[in-house]
Write a structure and sequence with these properties.
Oligomer: single chain
Number of strands: 8
Strand content: 25-35%
CATH superfamily: PEBP-like
Largest sheet: 6 strands, mixed
CATH class: Alpha Beta
CATH architecture: Alpha-Beta Complex
Distance between the termini: 22 Å
Length: 166
């Protein structure tokens, strides 16, 4: 997987977070209710203990397999309050209190689930970034805006990957 814009970490020494969901395990098929064919609900996400100094979290969901996109963005959120381990984001979250939401590649703000064309399996990465600051972003920001804003602020990162096809 080659991404045009690598998401930086603080001195490339960020620690690893375990990201999980009760809806699917890493590498498994994402249930239809999280897709645009189903209920289009974001999955519940939780993560392991956050490192000291975590001020906010950022969330990216993207599909690197989409033709013509590098990658196709399904969800962007920044300034998510660093909740206690085991809490995380609930299923079907729309507004996230205190957070700002970015514009996805469907040209909408918020979450839009998998919607690949019929055929091959696509891989969807739900990434969580623990950051040492709040970000100066407004609703409707882009993936590139987020990547630039988190530069030098990533304390830890984790990835939950699920698959989907039609």
């Amino acid at each position: 997987m080659t991404m045009r814009h690598k998401v930086p970490s603080r001195k490339d020494r960020a620690t690893h977070l375990q990201v999980s969901s009760p809806s699917f395990h890493h590498g498994e098929r994402i249930p239809v209710w999280h897709s645009m064919q189903g209920g289009n609900e974001s999955p519940e996400l939780s993560w392991s203990e956050l490192p000291g100094g975590t001020v906010s979290l950022a969330v990216i969901c993207e599909d690197p397999d989409a033709a013509g996109q590098d990658p196709f963005v399904h969800w962007l959120a920044a300034n998510v309050h660093p909740v206690q381990p085991g809490d995380g984001l609930p299923r079907g979250v729309g507004e996230i209190p205190g957070a700002v939401l970015g514009r996805n590649n469907f040209n909408r703000v918020g979450y839009d689930g998998p919607a690949p064309p019929p055929g091959k399996i696509h891989h969807y990465h739900f990434r969580i970034y623990a950051l040492d600051s709040l970000l100066n972003l407004e609703d409707g920001f882009t993936r590139l805006d987020l990547i630039r804003a988190i530069q030098g602020h990533v304390l830890a990162t984790g990835d939950l990957m699920g698959t989907y096809s039609r």
